[in-house]
Amino acid sequence: MSDARLEEFRQSIDNIDAALVYLLAERFKVTKAVGAYKAEAGLPPADPSREGRQIARLRTLAQSAQLDPDFSEKFLRFIIDEVIRHHERVR
Fold first, then answer.
1. What percentage of the chain's residues is helix, strand, coil (to nearest 5)?
2. I want to staple 62 with a disulfide (CB 3.0 to 4.6 A). Which of 8, 11, 31, 69 is the partner?
3. pLDDT tens, 54-66?
């Protein structure tokens, strides 16, 4: 038995998931370049001040988008930690 409405919802979710994957791929391409630049310039892999500003900015965006700010912070923290791990490997 097919539920057309459910399938429509699922197709939208699948499209959004695909967009998220491509956006994350683009983001990591840029952060990879940042890591290479930081290594060349002798800069540390992490920038806690920027990270704090980014998390605060994302929490504000999340609130305006009616998304749980705690979830958005956890999500960004996961991404930041992964980026730092990549930057440390470049050194």
1. 85, 0, 15
2. 69
3. 999 999 999 999 9
